[in-house]
Structures are given as structure tokens and as C-alpha cells.
Amino acid sequence: MNHSTDIEIPDDPWMSHAFISKLMTQVSLPYRKPKTNEIIRKNGTLEVKFTGGADCLPYGKYPRLFEMWACTMIKTGDSCFNPVTNTLNLGTTFREFLRLINIEIGGRQLKTIKPQLERLFKCAYFISNNTDGRSNGVNFVVADQYQIDWLSKEPQEHALFENTVQLSQKYVDYLRDAPVPVDLSIIARLNSPMSLDVYWWLTRRYSYLRERQSMTWNQLYDQFGSDASIRKFKENFKKAVSDVRVVYPQANITCGRQYVMIYPSDTSVATTAQVREVESRSRQIRECADRDATLARQAGREVSEGTIGAVLERLDYGEDYVPARRHVVHGLASGHTGDQVVAAWERGERL
Q1: More confident residue, 96 or 70
Q2: CA-to-CA distance for 182 and 19, rounded, in angstroms?
Q3: What is the largest CA-CA distance in the chain?
Q4: How far are the Cα atoms of 18, 184, 187, 239, 271 from residue 101, in angstroms, in the given order?
Q5: Averaged confidence pLDDT in the chain
Q6: Name one Pfam family in it (predicted).
Q7: What confidence score (pLDDT) does residue 350 get?
Q8: Pick from 109, 97, 27, 106: which is nearest to 69 by CA?
Q9: Is 119:57 a contact under the CB 8 Å cutoff?
Q10: Which of 30, 176, 283, 326 is least enclosed, having the fewest CB within 10 Å?
């Protein structure tokens, strides 16, 4: 349905990061048990209707974590996923995945996970992205079939984690459509489902955001959804943002009275482009330092790094670190004082 490209990231150690579906960064499943068996979420022209099975819709943290795990297994080509049959083996990989995010499986957790996963497997997605001139949509159920022994008479290590779920083809396609990399160390420290939603919504936005963007509270209410009033939603959202910023401090977001504003920030998992930019900048700084040392020797004046750093701190150079450093080194090596070097920079003169 979408013709987007993946967010490219470097090859990191296994399970240093995971992937969440792009759709889950755009709209949200319920946070509490909903009163109806279907909900509608909106984000711009995107509209998604989630319809539950005979019980109710999936809600809370565990359906989100399962979808993140399934998306990660499919994206990374893990052996627990069979791409021919679209079958996921809920073997030890799922258990280990939950342990990575500080969730241990026991009787209490199992009673929560079991119905939530069953609800997710039976859930249907109706996705449309319509404009005045074009209609575009896709509909699917999450799983075609599943076979899970919920520890009836088996030891824990030989039951829940040795079962399978056959995902529908369209659901697999949806998980493969430009999934968003997320940091597992951050996921492990977020307890509420809304904080998870806010986290991966922000990190995807930051992957392409180039200028400040503002959203009304009503827009966010339609996107994230809530069974509470808009006033209560604002409180919950602000709390989720506060939780996210503790573990993702580079996230630049402001919650105002009328609008929520986000500003260009680093993604939580560095993209390949970001890594290359940092490496290129580091290389330029090293090369610049080497040239500066050579120039200083040729001028017969040794300029210490401490002296260079002290003068640099007085310059307002923004992103122009390399030109500013060259200006300082050349000025000091030529016999200018630090004050003279600073004054020349402020006048726009380059030494």
C-alpha cells in the first residue's frame, strides 16, 4: 500500500535494537479494554479501523510487544520465522526477547499475555489512505491460524515457548513495509503502552523531520486515541512524554496549551547516514588538527590544545567547528592574542 523506503541503520550486535511496524508509529491500539469491538484511528489521510474477534480488541502493552517481536524476527530473517509458510515459532526466542526488555514469564504474566495474544491473532485491520482523487486501502486479519499450549500440564520451559502462529500474508507484508528501528534498552524502561507509542512515534518522525512541526491536541487524540476525555488524554500524553524524555533525552518536544510541537532531533537508533556524518566530522577534525600542528611548527610557535580550546569556547561558531578551529590556530600561530583572534572572528575576518 505504501511505497516508502526503510530507515537504514548499521549492522549492530543481535538484539541491540528491534523493529516496530510503521503503522504502529502512526496510529495506536487501545490502552485499556475498550467498550466496543472496533475503533477507528486517524492520522492525516490515514484511517485505520481495528476490529476484534468474539472477545474484544487487543489492548495494553503485550500486543504491542508481540508485534514488535514479530516485526523484528521477520525483518532480521530470524530462523524462528518461516517465510514460505509465514509461520512464527514461539520458541525460546520469544521468551529471550521478553527477558531483554525485563519481562519474566510466570503464572501472573501468563494470565495477562494469553488473552491479549489471542485477541491480537483474531484482530482485523482495515487500512485506508484516501484523498479526493484517489482511494487506497488494504484489509487483513493478523493470523490465519495458531496452535499454542498455554502450559496446561507441561513444564513452563516446554509449553508456551514451543508453539506456532501462522500469520496472514498481508499482515507479514504490512510488517515488512519500512519498519522503524527502536532501541531495546529504551523499550525495557518504558512501562506504559502510551509511552511506547509516543517513543516510536517520535523516533520515526525524527528520521525525516527537518523543521519544527506543530500538531493540535485533537489531531493527536484522533491518532493515539483514548477512552477518556480530551482533558484526561492531555494529562496522560504529557505523562507519557515525560517518561519518554527520561530515557530518550535527545527527543525535543514541547506540549503547549493548544499545540504539541516537535523539533528536529536525533533518532534513538542512529541511522547509517547519521553514523557516516559523525565519522566524516571526526575525520575532518583529526585532519584539521594535523594540519594545524604542521602550520604551528612552520611558524615556529607551538600552540597547545588547551590554549586552542580556551579560545574556541569564546567563539560563536555554530556548525562551523573546522573553520573556527583553523581560524584560532592560524591566528595564535601567527602571534595574535586570544582577544585579537576572537575580535577578528566577530568582525567576520578569517585569519
Answers
A1: 70
A2: 6
A3: 84
A4: 11, 7, 6, 21, 22
A5: 81
A6: RepA_C
A7: 75
A8: 97
A9: yes
A10: 283
Task: Give φ, ψ of 19 to 5 degrees.
Answer: -135, 140
Measured distance CA(167)–CA(80) in Å, rounded: 13
Enter the DSSP assignment of 330.
H
Which one is predicted more confidently, 99 or 83? 83
Number of residues that make up the chain: 351
Which grid cell is 29?
491500539
Q: Give the bridge partners for 46, in sequence order.
A: 43, 129
Taken in order 243, 244, 245, 247, the sign of the CA dihedral is positive
Q: Identify the DSSP state of 179.
A: P
Say how far apart CA 323 and CA 319 lie, in whole Å. Answer: 9
Closest CA to 225 of 24, 70, 20: 24
Question: Which set of grid coordinates corresponds to residue 56?
Answer: 474484544
pLDDT-derived band at 177 (thresholds 50, 70, 90) equals confident
User: DSSP string covering 282-301, please?
Assistant: HHHHHHHHHHHHHHHHHTT-
Is the confidence at residue 57, as pLDDT, over 90?
Answer: yes
DSSP per residue over 77-145, as a string?
T-TTEETTTTEEE-SHHHHHHHHHTT----HHHHHHHHHHHHHHHH-EEEEEE--SS---EEEEESEEE
Cell output for 194: 502510551
In this structure, the number of other CB atoms found within 10 A of the CB of residue 279 comes to 10
Amino acid present at 125:
Y
If phi over 0 gives left and psi between -120 and 50 gives alpha, with beta otherwise, what is residue 60? left
Vertex 51, ends 46 and 57: CA angle to 5°? 115
Please report, for residues 144, 158, 190, 240, the alpha-carbon distance to residue 253 in angstroms, rounded to integers and kept in the order given. 40, 45, 17, 12
